[in-house]
Write a structure and sequence with these properties.
It catalyses: Hydrolysis of terminal non-reducing beta-D-fructofuranoside residues in beta-D-fructofuranosides. It is an enzyme of class 3 (hydrolase). Helices cover 40% and strands 10% of the residues. It has 665 residues and is an alpha+beta fold. The strands form five sheets. It has a four-stranded antiparallel sheet. A hairpin with a 2-residue loop joins strand 4 and strand 5. Helix 2 (35-50) crosses helix 5 (106-118), helix 11 packs across helix 13 (397-418) and helix 21 packs across helix 22 (608-622). It is globular, with a radius of gyration of 25 Å. Bound molecules: alpha-D-glucopyranose (GLC). Alpha-D-glucopyranose binds at residues 203, 219, 221-222, 361, 363.
Length: 665
């Protein structure tokens, strides 16, 4: 089969599901009179979907702030500069919950309108479906107690609804490690409540820190290990609440310098603020206040948030067996909004996602703008997860086609062009440059001098890794741990590559793990490079923080990757090292120096994702089968398309016959 045929076959299949026609919106008029009103509608509709617990809110929407014009459009009455804060509120003292809004008449009508604004081709909910109800604690029946009280592993396989075998009531080891016990206590102390329900965990709970900055907020990326830890414990409420409330915060409003971030962007973090209730001295109300980067240091864009959100949503469904969350209309809409934002056409020529510097865990200037590996691995993982979770619907066929197209192209691009080992380095070292042709070997015009002597010396005979970034005439040869780990977990790296990455970690143990796992990247930028690339950032000095610092939270991603490759002993070794210091050092955010000997210069103590990362690593090692909620195996159709591309030789001549390829590789 020709490459393009193979690819098109995969693409036209448009994913594993077929889609039925859109019942509600396909024929609706999508035109709106004013952009301003559009914003109002968007926020109103998203708000209504989630915050029906408050009659205050209904008053705001139904009576005080929004009025309906004669032809049904909403407009703001009174205060035209309503802030987000005023909208995302919950009157906490009110226990009673307001029932769901129907789509017939009254406020229900404007919900249909706002869905039109979003042009998401979603179906309108039936009453009550959108309510944020109490979650039942779902106990998994996958773990079967044998007569001696141990877990019967054979029975631990996926249940019919896909639930991974964990649960609060499931039997666990009788003796609890004191460090684990302490970690659980600290993790529970970090829980943030909204209207009485747990919705996330604070980034750090450091009583010794003089300046809190935004560490008192719930960060989306930081909550992922917390969420996984709670899932593994069978405590599903907090994760469900987190998923639904952050969804509600998804971008639809002007945020910075009169500029709106792309619709679908998830915030970097949010905070629960408490205010006295207007006109009632004895009562307060709570408000969710998101930060899309408009207040963040450096105004960095949280590109990874939405990707992590999809990953956690999938894990929630797999672990709890509760698929009702991912099937909700508003959740399906949220997934599609994230996808549309990521898959939107731009000027870029590559299938990788183009982002600005600091748009992920490394949220500072570190020279990772362009196509950083971490974002690509999360992107790939989110695309796979979304494809799995999207429910059949005709209106999404184009989106699914684009998604499949991207999956094939992205995996090919990363596996082929990001991969380096000794052999590949030697190839680059001998590259010819300035090749103008379709079949250039050195496609990105990489100058061989970029292969430094220290890199050649560092590369082990056995092993390899995916480089940090690829741009025209630029390969960022730094090893970034999270990107490499998540490429293994998501299957973005091939099996051979995945094993080779773990080989490299073993071979370079004293650099990457040393006295505290895991180095965020290696090597550090030093001297002039540090000056130019970081702008002489005093927080990111060599071997500190993002610039070669060591982050205990990365333990959990390492553990999932090792379990997937059936090499858990590597993770176990790393955990053993971490255990010697983490509790004693008060769970720091990061460590400094080449061998991670110091607690980081400005590291917070009691950093929640250090605590949760450790717990997840421990829990998964104790029950490796639970890692399935995070791992994605290779899709046979993708493998097929990919191998056809490889076997047809990426360096082939681009003759007339294949000039109709859907994308350039
Ligand atoms: C730092 C980290 C970022 C993290 C945040 C909160 O900014 O770089 O990844 O999300 O702290 O812990």
């Amino acid at each position: 089969m020709a490459t393009s045929d193979a690819v098109l076959q995969v693409l036209s299949g448009a994913g594993p599901r077929s889609f039925s026609s859109d019942l509600c919106f396909s024929n609706l008029d999508l035109a709106f009179r004013s952009k301003h009103i559009k914003y109002v509608r968007k926020r109103a509709s998203r708000h209504m979907k989630m915050f029906k617990c408050s009659s205050v809110l209904q008053d705001c929407i139904g009576k005080q702030w929004f009025k309906r014009s004669g032809d049904g459009d909403l407009y703001l009455s009174g205060n035209a500069t309503i802030k987000r804060l005023q909208l995302l509120r919950c009157k906490c003292q009110q226990a009673e919950r307001v029932s769901g809004v129907t789509t017939e008449g009254g406020n229900g009508t404007w919900f249909v309108d706002s869905a039109k604004t979003l042009n998401l081709n979603g179906a309108v909910n039936s009453p009550g479906v959108l309510e944020l109800g109490e979650t039942q604690q779902l106990t998994s029946e996958t773990e079967v107690l044998t007569s001696n009280g141990s877990v019967n592993k054979e029975e631990e396989s996926l249940t019919t609804n896909g639930a991974v075998g964990t649960g609060r009531d499931a039997p666990r080891k009788a003796s609890v490690d004191p460090i684990e016990e302490e970690a659980w206590e600290l993790l529970r102390d970090s829980v943030v409540y909204y209207c009485g329900s747990p919705i996330g965990t604070i980034a750090a709970n450091d009583p010794t820190s003089s300046s809190v900055l935004n560490y008192d907020q719930v960060f989306i990326r930081d909550f992922i290990p917390s969420g996984i830890a709670f899932l593994l414990k069978g405590e599903y409420d907090i994760v469900r609440n987190f998923l639904l409330h952050t969804l509600q915060l998804q971008s639809w409003e002007k945020t910075m310098d009169c500029h709106s971030p792309g619709q679908g962007l998830m915030p970097a973090s949010f905070k629960v603020r408490t205010f006295p209730l207007d006109g009632d001295d004895s009562a307060t109300e709570e408000v969710l206040d998101p930060d899309f980067g408009e207040a963040a240091i450096g105004r960095v864009a949280p590109v990874d948030s939405g990707l992590w959100w999809i990953i956690l949503l999938r894990a929630y469904g797999k672990c709890s067996g509760d698929l009702s969350v991912q099937e909700r209309i508003d959740v399906q809409t949220g997934i599609k909004m994230i996808l549309r934002l990521c898959l939107a056409d731009g000027f870029d020529m590559f299938p990788t996602l183009l982002v600005t510097d600091g748009s992920c865990m490394i949220d500072r200037r570190m020279g990772i703008h362009g196509h950083p590996l971490e974002i690509q691995a999360l992107f790939y993982s989110a695309l796979l997860g979304a494809r799995e979770m999207l429910t059949p619907e005709d209106g999404s066929a184009d989106l699914l086609r684009a998604l499949n197209n991207r999956l094939v192209a992205l995996s090919f691009h990363i596996r082929e062009y990001y991969w380096i080992d000794l052999r590949k380095l030697n190839e680059i070292y001998r590259y010819k440059t300035e090749e103008y042709s379709y079949d250039a070997v050195n496609k990105f015009n990489i100058y061989p001098d970029q292969v430094s002597t220290s890199l050649v010396e560092w590369m082990p005979n056995q092993g390899g890794y995916l480089i940090g970034n690829l741009q025209p005439a630029h390969m960022d040869f730094r090893f970034f741990s999270l990107g490499n780990m998540w490429s293994i977990v998501s299957g973005l790296a091939t099996r051979d590559q995945s094993n080779a990455i773990l080989d490299l970690i073993e071979a370079k143990w004293s650099d990457l793990v040393a006295d505290m796992p895991l180095k965020i990247c290696h090597p550090a930028l030093e001297g002039q490079e540090w000056q130019i690339i970081t702008g002489s950032d005093p927080k990111n000095t060599p071997w500190s923080y993002h610039n070669g610092g060591s982050w205990p939270t990365l333990l959990w991603q390492l553990t999932v990757a090792c379990i997937k490759m059936n090499r858990p002993e590597i993770a176990a070794r790393a955990i053993e090292i971490a255990e010697k210091r983490l509790s004693r050092d008060k769970w720091p955010e990061y460590y400094d120096t080449k061998k991670a000997r110091f607690i980081g210069k400005q590291a917070r103590l009691f950093q929640t994702w250090s605590i949760a990362g450790y717990l997840v690593a421990k829990l998964l090692l104790a029950d490796p089968s639970a890692a399935r909620m995070l791992v994605t195996d290779e899709d046979p159709e993708l493998v097929n398309a990919f191998s056809c591309m490889i076997s047809s030789n990426p360096r082939r001549k681009r003759g007339q016959n294949n000039s109709k390829k859907p994308f350039i590789i």
